[in-house]
Design goal:
The protein has four helices and five strands, in the order βααββααββ. It is an alpha+beta fold.
Length: about 140
């Protein structure tokens, strides 16, 4: 018997802005995706994308004490938002090249774009980093 797909809500997680906590985010997303019946390959893609997004936020923040993950579970997709609200010292502490890399998102965002179906990346030196990723559930 096929499980009826329906909207299932939002799962939120806050982790300290420290690399040692990225594994917790990976496990949480794997659990949610598994519950939604994503394939093993798609779960691995989600784990990599979440790890890259968290790492991006942690590496580029200077004053944020946490990374926030919000996982919207829909009937045909999972949409994950990873964000931090630390202020950056763009100016004396960051060269113009580094500032440009932060705005573009660097290699991590390129990898995320290759693994996910839709990606939106926002960077503001004053407001922080916000990355929204969507993965479609294939039938």
């Amino acid at each position: 018997m096929e499980q009826t797909r329906k909207a299932r809500g939002i799962v939120e997680l806050r982790i300290p802005g420290d690399a040692e906590w990225v594994g917790v985010a990976r496990l949480a997303i794997a659990g949610v995706a598994s519950r939604m019946n994503f394939s093993i390959d798609d779960i691995e893609d989600l784990k990599i994308a979440v790890a890259e997004a968290c790492t991006n936020c942690i590496q580029h923040a200077t004053a944020s004490d946490e990374v926030r993950l919000s996982c919207e579970v829909g009937p045909e997709h999972i949409r994950i938002t990873v964000e931090e609200h630390g202020k950056r010292g763009v100016g004396p502490q960051a060269s113009p090249e580094e500032s440009a890399d932060l705005k573009v998102g660097g290699l991590g965002v390129f990898l995320i774009r290759s693994l996910m179906d839709d990606v939106s990346y926002e960077f503001d030196p004053q407001a922080g980093t916000k990355l929204t990723m969507t993965k479609l559930l294939k039938a």
